[in-house]
Amino acid sequence: MIKGEAGVAFIGSGSAQVETVLSNDMLSQMVETSDEWISTRTGIRQRHLASMNESLAELAAQAAQAAIAAANLAPDDIDLIILATSTPDDLFGTACQVQAAIGANRAVAFDLTAACSGFVFGIVTAAQFIRTGTYQNVVVIGADLLSRWVDWQDRTTCVLFGDGAGAVVMQACDRDRLLGFEMHSDGSMNGCLSLAYQPESNALIDGVASQQGTFKTITMNGREVYRFAVSRVPEVLEKTLFHAGLAAEDIDWLILHQANQRILDAVAKRLKLPNDRVVSNMAKHGNTSAASIPIALDEWVRTGNVKPGHKIAISGFGAGLTWGAALLEWGL
Ligand code: UT7
């Protein structure tokens, strides 16, 4: 390592949940579906939904506070907050509200949008600031309230998503524990999964109109996205492992974006990883977008499954389309 450069350590995790639970049986009272269909096709049994008095900023702040406490740091130690989200409370960004809520007075804060890949892209972005010696302590949060944007009449999407937030603290250290990463985008497939702005004309004066629309609801070609995930995710993980000089059997835990249990099973099979090394919590949470990897990571850390020195492969994939992977070693 040369002067001015640092390694990256992952030293604390946190997560936060909203209270309201919507089970598959409850959903089947709303649309033509069943617990049997949802659980066998996706592995999801329930999801959490934010109520009227819960905000993304609040949830993200709770996750960040828990991660900072787990890292034995104080909010004033934090130099940078990256909030990966596609569902901000404010289109100008929500990270600054999180900064104020947790009292991280010295930190600069900004949002990063890369849908379900947001957390992976967030930690890679944070690592650049740490490796160049610019910042010491960075909080990366993945938080989404996709329930705000779901079409609750569309059974092909409304059964999938839930709300939540998770976070990690990354710190400068001598030995780099970010062992490898890969990130990709393919905008030509953007239409497969989107939450697009829909403009409406607003006449201002004769001959001049502005657009004054809104975002509508999530649309997804599930089969296309499924095909994309089961081919790209193993590929990006294999490349990441190759560049790190490691093999799949060196991984203690594989934490994929929790989109579908069948995707997790297919990726594990392709990597020849036993199922007991594959982290899955989607039965409880559904697909929480940018939050799914850090929530799963935090649950595995807090239950003592993840131990210092464990190697964890993470991979996010989704709208954009975007996908990426990172290989990290937990703890100092
Ligand atoms: O977070 C971003 C990344 N997202 C993903 O990775 C999602 C990837 N896609 C998937 O996970 C799956 O494609 C889904 C879970 C979305 C759908 O599962 P599938 O096995 O691909 O189902 P399908 O779309 O092929 O639909 C099979 C049948 C259809 O009926 P027909 O045409 O065979 O008569 C659907 O209309 O299942 C029907 N169907 C449902 N039935 C009961 C679709 N949704 C439902 C439902 N309940 N909720």
Please explain how this structure is put together.
The protein has ten helices and 17 strands. The protein has 332 residues and is α+β, with helices and mostly antiparallel strands. A five-stranded mixed sheet has the order 1-7-6-4-5, sandwiched between helices. A four-stranded mixed sheet has the order 8-17-16-15, sandwiched between helices. A two-stranded antiparallel ribbon has the order 2-3. Strand 11 and strand 12 (208-211) form a beta hairpin. Helix 3 packs across helix 4 and helix 7 runs parallel beside helix 8. The longest helix is centred in the last third of the chain and has 23 residues, at 222-244. The model has no long low-confidence stretch (mean pLDDT 97).
Short description:
The protein is an alpha+beta fold and 332 residues long. The chain folds into 2 domains: 7-177, Peroxisomal Thiolase, Chain A, domain 1 (3-Layer(aba) Sandwich), CATH 3.40.47.10; 180-189 and 217-329, 3-Layer(aba) Sandwich (Peroxisomal Thiolase, Chain A, domain 1).
Which structural traits does this protein have?
single chain, 332 residues, alpha+beta, Peroxisomal Thiolase, Chain A, domain 1, five-stranded mixed sheet, four-stranded mixed sheet, 10 helices, 17 strands, 31% helix, binds oxa(dethia)-CoA
CATH superfamily placement of the largest domain: Thiolase/Chalcone synthase
Give the CA-based shape.
globular
Number of strands: 17
Proper CATH architecture of the largest domain: 3-Layer(aba) Sandwich
What percentage of the residues does DSSP assign to strands (E)? 25-35%
Give the distance, in angstroms, between the N- and C-terminal Cα atoms. 17 Å
Biggest β-sheet strands, sense, barrel: 5 strands, mixed
The CATH topology of the largest domain, please?
Peroxisomal Thiolase, Chain A, domain 1
Tally of structural domains: 2
Helix content: 25-40%
Bound molecules: oxa(dethia)-CoA
Summarize model confidence as the mean pLDDT: 97
Spell the H/E element sequence.
Answer: EEHHEHEHEHEHEEEEEEEEHEHHHEE
